[in-house]
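Contributing new records

If you add data, match the layout below exactly. Sequence lines come first and carry their own label; structure lines follow with theirs. Keep one chain per record. Anything else will be rejected by the validation script.
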Amino acid sequence: MTTARDLPSESLSPLAERVEHVLAAYDYEVSAAIDAIDAAVPGIGGLFEPGTEPAELRAAIEHVLAADDHETRVDRDLAGETAILYVDGSSRGNPGPAGAGAVVQDEAGESLLRLARPVGSRTDNNTAEYAALALGLARLLAQFEPARIEVRIDSRTVIRSVWEERADPGAQFREYRAAVVALLERAPDDDWQHLADSDPNPADALATVGADIAALGPGG
């Protein structure tokens, strides 16, 4: 069974990779993971604070990873309902530091999961879009048992490959597409909605956070 921790990954700096391990420990709930790192940094420093010394940041990350409690709790059941999944990928420079973001909402629009991960330090936008869809589906299906999943996505490339033409996307994306297809096979029913550039996408900001993490480095 594919989980978020089994998803394909690209090259990251040692520091970005350790932050990704913290995200994985928190099931990619980005706020909980970053808050934990920030709380472990002495003083007013934090993951994205320029004044934080690299040694302090590395020590904080290792402290968080060594902790016993990484639990994230969602007191909501989507059984019999439609789960709304927003996904987005971001690549700064295309290729460049890339991140994936996903938001799971209920039918009323309440956000239940806010997920992010770095994808690669020199990765293109299409790869980030596939990674975002795989991340969102993996976490959604691990947490909930909805009757239906509606994916909201702005990538026509991914839509054509996964739902419309269902064609081989080429070697670069084959592993990501296979992960997405395997996850969709576990969903009782699914559909997609294409988002125009002007449509709001709550996953956009999370993909940017993922790209910010991918840009961290070198660390180690």
